[in-house]
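Fold it.
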Amino acid sequence: MNRLGIVAALVGESRPLGPATRRGAEPATLADGTLLVVSGIGPAAAAEGARRLVAAGARALLSWGLAGGLDPSLEAGTLLLPREVISPEGRVFLTSADWRDRVSDILPATRHGPCCGKLLTCREPLASTAAKALAFRQTGAVAVDMESSAVAEVASAERVPFLVVRAIVDTAQDAVPAVALNAAATGQNGPQFARLLATLASRPGELPALIRLARRYRTASHALSTVAGSGALARALSRELAGGAAP
């Protein structure tokens, strides 16, 4: 085992990491020995997933998946390797500088990042462009998710290195359609197609936004696949742990 533990909120977010095997109630294991927990959405679920990883032997924690853009300059598919994560209460957590820099150095060059700006964690989705603009002005965060600060808090308590790798899916200019929010809320196994169709039937005007979001999702997933395929996460971590860098 390479001692890396990854928290992803949804199965769809974890797919770019590759197939995983599971034994009983333990976290799943990826081909390179990385441990994976698909936690479900939100800070409480993510924190529980992070604690499960540490209990299973993980000695570094990574928050992985998608994020919403707050900075209008960021395009869908932009990779995020934030230096700081802001909790819903305003607490600031630093990611591991050495680990982050090593991952960035290993990643293949792309026109979509990585961006190291601040990441905000919220308890509820920021679905409207107005809400995103307000959060950007108030916090200076370039993007938002619903799990990373909870993983950071567990990492801080356990004194293990912490990193975030996210990809922008909805940009600051994109309002997230209610049909997509309802689908995501169905649970960690992903949206239920029947419920998606039923919700869309009651909100047909959201179809163009949903199609646009689906395209953004493919772009973001491709960016995450690039990171996973590079092997950068575990390789960079092994150097950090070998060097005895402080979290």
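Confidence is low (pLDDT under 50) at residues 187-191.
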